[in-house]
């Protein structure tokens, strides 16, 4: 068999606030792991968000989107800040982020929820419930009730105002998110829980029918279960360890992924990836640009570093390299190093740069 060419184009989007600081740590870590694994990265840095408003007059320059589209994966840090808060919509950093997601057609949002044993005390759950949680939430990102038509406001015959939205999913939309979820479950423990409200909603009945069919036809090796969203919300807090991979629609996924994010304690630890049909994936921490601590070397770079690990695993199929990065993060925490957001007594407080150096030593 021909040796797969392990050379990849990665677009880097540092964005605003703590973005440049945490991205620089992630890039150093990627370079180190590339050297160990015989991988080649061609990095290209581009402007997005407030930095692009200041530098190019728009939050998403054409050249940024074109470069992203032509790459194998995109690593984004964070965007936004007080400075641009009163800008008109077309000059807001957030408009750049939405444009980027739409421009790349990323319909599948993957959010891992892990409670590392070293950080179990940071979880609002009891240690025995929290420790060892390892879930992947796969959320449909560009369909469902947030986009369904028609939508709007009206006045009825009795003169009362009303408003309406539609939760609409077509079979191709369900099928493609289901496939991403099954593929994801396959790379994990091989268990997929599809969350819906099929006892009440027709859209959920079609969802359940299609997910079941795709499982039977294409992924018989993955163990599929179904759960109503109200029960899933309860189970995530009561016994989160029962879940491996969860797949759900846009609205339910929005809510469940925020519940799940809280389980792990710090926003500074959580990465995400957004995948398209065949183009490059977009990988970013779930936290924002943290303008309150920007430029002070205080930010936790681990969510960004773990986003780089997701890029390797889900964006490029470089699972081994991804696992090396995850192990380095775990080792740094084992040794007691903590940034301010994770700090507790008996641990060693480090800044963003220092945390990066510790990761490099481990690698
Ligand atoms: P956005 O609207 O972009 O999501 P936000 O205002 O909701 O941003 P964040 O920027 O995520 O929120 O910041 C929320 C809080 O968490 C802030 O106090 C910030 O300093 C802190 N925070 C966020 N990310 C990190 C990080 N990587 N390390 C340390 N603290 C962080
Ligand atoms: Mg936020």
UniProtKB/TrEMBL annotation:
Record's cofactor remark: Binds 1 Mg(2+) or Mn(2+) ion per subunit.
- Provide any one GO MF term from the record: metal ion binding
Q: What is its EC number?
A: 1.1.1.85
Instruction: Identify the SUPFAM superfamilies for this entry.
Output: Isocitrate/Isopropylmalate dehydrogenase-like
The record's section on SMART domains has: Iso_dh
Residue intervals of the Isopropylmalate dehydrogenase-like domain: 9-359
Could you tell me the superkingdom of the organism this chain comes from? Eukaryota
State the UniProt keywords alphabetically.
Amino-acid biosynthesis, Branched-chain amino acid biosynthesis, Leucine biosynthesis, Magnesium, Manganese, Metal-binding, NAD, Oxidoreductase
User: Which EC class is this protein assigned?
Assistant: oxidoreductase
Which GO terms fall under biological process for this protein? L-leucine biosynthetic process
Q: Does the keyword Manganese apply?
A: yes
Q: In which pathway does it act?
A: Amino-acid biosynthesis; L-leucine biosynthesis; L-leucine from 3-methyl-2-oxobutanoate: step 3/4
Pfam families to which the protein is assigned, alphabetical:
Iso_dh
The cofactors named for this UniProt entry are: Mg(2+); Mn(2+)
Tell me what reaction this enzyme catalyses.
Answer: (2R,3S)-3-isopropylmalate + NAD(+) = 4-methyl-2-oxopentanoate + CO2 + NADH
Q: Which NCBIfam families match?
A: leuB
Q: Report the protein's function.
A: Catalyzes the oxidation of 3-carboxy-2-hydroxy-4-methylpentanoate (3-isopropylmalate) to 3-carboxy-4-methyl-2-oxopentanoate. The product decarboxylates to 4-methyl-2 oxopentanoate.
What interactions and quaternary structure are annotated? Homodimer.
Family label = Belongs to the isocitrate and isopropylmalate dehydrogenases family.
Q: What is the name listed in the Swiss-Prot or TrEMBL entry for this protein?
A: 3-isopropylmalate dehydrogenase
What is the species listed in this Swiss-Prot or TrEMBL entry?
Riccia fluitans
